[in-house]
Amino acid sequence: MEAVPRMPMIWLDLKEAGEFAFNPAVKKSAVNVPRDFEGCSTLRKYFGQLHYLQSRIPMGAEQEAAVPIAWTEIFSGKTVTHEDIKYEQACVLYNLGALHSMLGAMDKRVSEECAAGAFTYLRDHFPHSYSVDMSHQILNLNINLMLGQAQECLLEKSMLDNRKSFLVARISAQVVDYYKEACRALENSETTSLLGKIQKDWKKLVQMKIYYFAAVAHLHMGKQAEEQQKFGERVIYFQSALDKLNEAIKLAKGQPETVQEALRFTMDVIGGKYNSAKKDNDFIYHETVPALDTLQSVKGAPLVKALPVNPTDPAVTGPDIFAKLVPMAAHEASSLYSEEKAKLLRDVMAKIETKNEVLDQFMDSMQLDPETVDNLDMYSHIPPILMEKCAALSVRPDTVKNLVQSMQVLSGVFTDVEASLKEIRDLLEEDEAQERKLQELLGKVPGSQGSPPPPSSGVAEVSKECSKYMEVHEKASFTNTELHKAMNLHISNLRLLSGPLEHVRAALPSPSLTEDDKQVLQNLKRILAKVQEMRDQRTSLEQQLREMIQKDDITTSLVTTDRSEMKKLFEEQLKKYDQIKVYLEQNLAAQENVLKALTDANVKYAAVRKVLAEVEHKWNTTVQTLVASYEAYEDLMKKSQEGKDFYTDLEGKAAKLLEKARAACHAAETNRQQILEKEMKKQPPPRPTAPKPLQKKQLELEPGGVLDSSELPLGALVLPDLPEELRSL
Questions:
Q1: d(CA 336, CA 554)
Q2: Each residue of 246-300: pLDDT tens digit?
Q3: What is the distance between the alpha carbons of residues 319 and 312, in angstroms, rounded to a whole number?
Q4: Per-residue DSSP letters for 618-684?
Q5: I need a labelling partner for 494 at 20 to 30 A (CA). Which of 260, 270, 565, 617 fits?
Q6: 664: Cβ contacts below 8 Å, ≥ 6 apart
Q7: What is the three-class DSSP state of 110?
């Protein structure tokens, strides 16, 4: 896999700056940066100096020195203006992340972690109401995309370095996790409305990558199983990798050639691995192939992180050009308070993420989707694909009739050929029997010498040709039988599709649920709704906390507070977060009870779920079978016509051969008659000789009796000098 072509990556456009009453030279150099790492350095310096400026001069929203600042919104192209220096910082920080994403998508494939760091800092430290391209949802999407692409780069390097298979599998699994998070953000209705057409393109690429890197993960799990000589596990991992890769190929339609090359290359690798592993296990190892869900799932290993942004790092921003304008004490105190807020947020987010991870793992193990937990609606109508086939057959009413007629014609021609060949075989057998009789007779005629004459060349030629036709006929007979089986299988389905729709609907399986079963379903759906409500509430509370932290600016208070009182002031200010922390704690604590209730409901749902799954499987199988019968019609007609043409040709040849056989057998019979007559003429007539003396009692006559030659013993009429061979005649 180390030579696999690289997958393309997503990069973001930069925002365009508008009016800002600032030094024109500084503005020009900050917004028209080159698309390289020098441009990133310029943006970092400008961002840092803006941070120094806003901490000293009241240029924030509704402050005395605030001036209009305009930037173009990425998705709509509209110009958005705010009188807030933080808006300028936010837009510069966005461009820093976008530029890093652009550089990361190039051949060097670095800097995604920098992009993720820029967007993370923007999400956590700035309001999300400035413009829609900097909303919380969009920033989360960008962060997960960048982290996923950074992990993808690490995966490429790991494969090039030939790292251990299990580590490569975990790295690949983490790529899947990041892209799943990105996909969830892309599927959000708000994100969809904001991104427009680009949302579909990104979603298709991300979904394809999810399946692709899941296939890579299972490929390397199969390699690990191979190293551990677990040959049954190796087969199922390679099979799973092949299945996921096929899903990726389906989703890759319309993707650039680089994607197609990567998929083809990976298919060659995985396909070869699977075929080899399956063959070895079938013929050598004979290990049981376990079900995939019985094996331990591959847990991702997050080896990348969003690189933090520090606007006050002199190594990045250079010296503070506004150092003389504002006391550093107030600035330092504000930074300390910001760190306290960040610490509070990290503590809360650690608890939330832990609970979310448990919840996600639990829901994944349950495999319960609220939208499809009961699929009863699908059984109330005929699926569109089947309706399409029914409609197509409704305008072709002779479909079944044509197929039946084709079968009958083919059977008739087949029977004719069978009869002709049988008659030829009977003629040859009869000729062989007559020839054998002649040979037996010739062997007993006096004066016959040598072996009997061989069969005529005409009969031998017919026999040889008949054997050839019989061989062809026997081979074609098997194909003909299989074709008739296929026809008989599909004719009933075609009749069904050609009939009333009510009959088609009745032929499709549907579940029969009791009232208790329906109650179990309703209860499960209610608890699943509770789970979603808990998720939504948690997300809302998290958002409220972030917004409170972002809006919490106590710079004015810090200027008037003594340095010794700073700690006390921090504690008092942080109390404003206690209430929302309590709500979050209650939400997190409720999770255990909700999941317990869901577990109980799922236990009761197991039997219903099995019934629904079985019926759904039967329903899908029936639909697929009916569709297959429709699609097989043209092929059956074509093969039937080919069969008719074949047997018509064979029938003509068999008829000619039959005439030839009759003529050859007749000629052979005539020849045998001539030979027999000739041999009979060669035999001398029998000479009369003296009979043996009769026994006395044989010659005794009853009084008045007359001696009749028919009463003499047979030996008495035989001349004693006749050969023994003729005495029996």
A1: 11
A2: 999 999 998 999 999 999 999 999 999 999 999 999 999 899 999 998 998 899 9
A3: 9
A4: HHHHHHHHHHHHHHHHHHHHHHHHHHHHHHHHHHHHHHHHHHHHHHHHHHHHHHHHHHHHHHHHHSP
A5: 617
A6: 431, 456, 458, 459, 461, 462
A7: coil
